């Protein structure tokens, strides 16, 4: 049974009895945003040629994405790297050329455009697609709902324990300690892209969970 009133000993009494429980809550939500890392990797014996080719591809990709209504501020460089390539012949190191890698992170507000963004980038010369992730624009709203469920779950557990023991549970918890964090995005596994007729990319559902520990007193 529960008892919230002041007629019984205060829950802050030093000799109080305590029930400690965990609470968990999970909600499902459809993602409404996605992010993709895409770009080009070019190689040439001449560094300037490798850079020029790479710059041309990236410029074409950006222009094409903007035409898809992707705002420029949603397209940002996350990697720009130049690597020297070597071959080894008879124990000797021989310069093979240079590899230039330029990757962009693209944030897509219209999740249904995700596959089209991939295909459009590839049609403009992108040969690296990775880290496709699906997220919620307002994850805190779903997380707070999960947290509410976790609190109710902890309360039900404490009540069940108290009822089994034949004691009276004081409704207001002495302490609640949050143990979980905001939801993580859903990764969509992919790597170097091989062009196909169309790219079906299914976002699935976000599973957003919350967990906590709670302490209740009883008499």
Automatic annotation (TrEMBL):
Annotated signal sequence range: none
Gene3D superfamilies: Protein of unknown function (DUF541), domain 1, Protein of unknown function (DUF541), domain 2
PANTHER family per the UniProt record, alphabetical: PERIPLASMIC IMMUNOGENIC PROTEIN, SLR1258 PROTEIN
Species of origin: Paenibacillus sedimenti
One family name in Pfam for this protein: SIMPL
UniProt GO BP: DNA damage response
Name the record gives this protein: SIMPL domain-containing protein
Coiled-coil blocks: none
């Amino acid at each position: 049974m529960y008892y919230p009133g002041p007629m019984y000993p205060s829950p802050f009494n030093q000799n109080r009895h305590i029930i400690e429980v965990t609470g968990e809550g999970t909600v499902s939500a459809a993602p409404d945003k996605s992010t993709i890392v895409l770009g080009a990797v070019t190689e040439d014996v001449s560094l300037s040629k490798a850079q020029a080719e790479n710059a041309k591809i990236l410029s074409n990709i950006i222009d094409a994405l903007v035409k898809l209504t992707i705002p420029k501020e949603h397209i940002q460089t996350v990697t720009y790297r130049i690597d020297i390539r070597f071959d080894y012949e008879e124990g000797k190191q021989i310069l093979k050329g240079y590899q230039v890698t330029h990757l962009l992170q693209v944030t897509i507000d219209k999740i249904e455009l995700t596959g089209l963004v991939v295909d459009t980038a590839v049609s403009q010369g992108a040969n690296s697609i990775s880290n496709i992730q699906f997220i919620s624009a307002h994850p805190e709203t779903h997380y707070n709902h999960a947290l509410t469920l976790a609190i109710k779950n902890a309360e039900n557990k404490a009540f069940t324990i108290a009822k089994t023991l034949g004691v009276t549970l004081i409704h207001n918890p002495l302490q609640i300690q949050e143990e979980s964090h905001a939801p993580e995005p859903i990764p969509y596994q992919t790597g170097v892209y091989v062009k196909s007729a169309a790219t079906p990319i299914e976002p699935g559902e976000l599973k957003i969970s919350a967990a906590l520990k709670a302490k209740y007193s009883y008499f």
